[in-house]
Amino acid sequence: MTLPLRRAGMSSPGNLSEEQVHCSICLDVFTDPVSIPCGHNFCQACILGYWKSSPLYRCPMCKKSFYKRPDVSVNTVLREIAEQFKEMRLKSMAGKLAKGNKWTVERRKEEDEERLLEDDREEEMKGVEENVTRNVAEEKSPEEAIQPAPPESPSWREVLCDVCLGEGRPKAVKSCLVCLTSYCEEHLRSHAARFTKHKLMEPVANMEDRMCPKHQRLLELFCKKDQTCVCVLCTETDHRAHYTVPVEREWTEKRAHLKKIQVDVQQMIQDRVRKVEEVKRSVELNKASAKRETEDSMQVFSELIRSIRRTQADVVALIEEKRRRTEDRARDLVTELEREIEGLRKRYTDLENMERTDHIHFLKNFPAMSAAPSVHDWTDTSVPTDVSVGLIRTAVSNLEAAFTKMVDKLADGEIQKILKYTADVTLDPDTANPWLQLSQDRRQVRHLGAWQDLPDHPDRFDTVVIVLGREGFTSGRHYWEVQVGEKDDWYMGVARSSVNRKGRISVSTAHGYWALAMKKGQGYRVSTVPPLPLALDPKPKRVGVYVDYEEGQISFYDVRARTHLYTFSDRLTEKILPFFYLYCCDKASDTVVICPVAEKALIQQS
């Protein structure tokens, strides 16, 4: 049965709606048209072929997906209308072709004008990009400057034709904002000939993202208030009275801002590249330092070993000398004793002979023979069995003095090294106990001898006369020097930032304090548990404090004597702050001063 065109609502080819007889895949009049569940129609071969190249069964028009391929059958009514349209189109083909050629010329002229405007915009943005790139490249090293930029995402560079089938689909040249489909050059000609009122644009992927989901209109405006793209109808509904601008203008502004962000990010990259180079250089310097330290340690310990061996040899030689002298003396004693023994034996023999003589002879010789023999009194004479007493101790004491001298020399070298880690330490007035008075530059503190009415700050020590430093440390190495002068009541060192600020406080490592202290009448000590006394002579008047956070090392030095006083070794897990504790007194005390390390040379000259 053949349906007249008037029954289909069309009296002539000019009255027929092309969407009703046109397949959006092959861009030609339907051949065996079929309907799919979303209501759109396609040639049976076209839609089945389209589904073969897609993992999901999706409608090319509305993009609705079906997880199971729908059953399709030929729409006989639409097929008859399409066949009648083909017959009628043949009669007016000549006029259509002429009109189409005229339209093509005009359209190409419009497209050329649009392309020229777009080229101008692209040239302007390219100039901006080149300026940014040139400014950034000046900060790059030669190696970085020649590195290629990362490739852009394919979705920005290559948009494939949505109509063509198969793996090797050509690139799209335009995208239709009405069909939400991208076309290659061949399909674009057929599309433009049939849909003269459709709006085309440069090819982009995901065309559905450019349409308003509520009104199915092109997203042409940008709402400044809600920071979102809207269509014209949105400005009459949800975004009424909102300030909107064309998306092109907002894109230009945002892109300029994006360039600034790119410059900032590139600068951050450069900063981190330089930091990487700095770290690498530090590793090399550390390696060289380790080599020097190894050589120095070998030299030091070799000298110590030589000193020990030299002292050992001296002690052994002295012991041997004492042994020989003892043997010589013993030999002389034995010789003298043997000589006396020989004389006494002779005397004993003479006494025996006299005992056998007659009375007259006996009495005549008795006075001479009865006299005590002339011999030495050996009662208190002895030979010591010990070579010496205190010889080894004396030798070790002398060795200890040499070690101390070497340790002092090494301490001087330590101070020279740690000077480059000088930190700018100032005091925090919000932590100072009301008995303490700080200088205006926050580098001096003294016990005022009177209570000050200060705000009850949560960080302030209310009972113990302590003030903390403003600057804290969570990593790295730091060094500062403190002038204590003749003051004899103080603690100084570092404390955990979480130490208790209220009530009575025990200054010890158990409570988060690593300190050197001077207590009048008790001398120097460190805040170990229990406190460890230190015999320091001379008294340090300027103390250097050195912190190595990663190593957990807190060291104290006598800056004037250039000697090491004491080192804590602990595990540091939180922020630490310099601290000062000045004991209570009834009158104003001497000032404790945080001194610039640059004054070291002046101190050495004084």
Describe this structure in words.
- The chain is of the alpha+beta class and 606 residues long.
- The protein is elongated and about 195 Å long.
- It has eleven helices and 23 strands.
- It has helices at 18-21, 44-52, 76-91, 93-137, 142-145, 154-157, 185-194, 247-355, 359-370, 391-418, 600-605; strands at residues 33-35, 41-43, 57-58, 65-66, 174-176, 181-183, 200-201, 221-223, 228-230, 244-246, 436-438, 444-447, 466-468, 477-483, 489-496, 513-519, 523-526, 532-534, 542-548, 553-558, 563-569, 576-582, 592-595.
- 19% of the residues are buried.
- The protein has a seven-stranded antiparallel sheet, with helices on one face. The chain has a six-stranded antiparallel sheet with strand order 13-22-15-16-17-18, with no helix packed on it.
- Residues 1-14, 96-105, 139-156 and 599-606 have low confidence and may be disordered.
- A hairpin with a 5-residue loop joins strand 11 (436-438) and strand 12.
Quick synopsis:
With 606 residues, the chain is of the alpha+beta class.
Largest sheet: 7 strands, antiparallel
Rounded mean pLDDT is: 80
Low-confidence stretches: 1-14, 96-105, 139-156, 599-606
Distance between the termini: 123 Å
Classify the beta-strand content into a percent band. Answer: 15-25%
Give me the secondary-structure category: alpha+beta
**Main sheet: which strands, in order across?**
11-12-23-14-19-20-21
Helical proportion?
40-55%
Inertia-based shape: elongated
How many strands in all? Answer: 23
Kindly provide the radius of gyration, computed on alpha-carbon positions and rounded to a whole number of angstroms: 53 Å
- How many H/I helices? 11
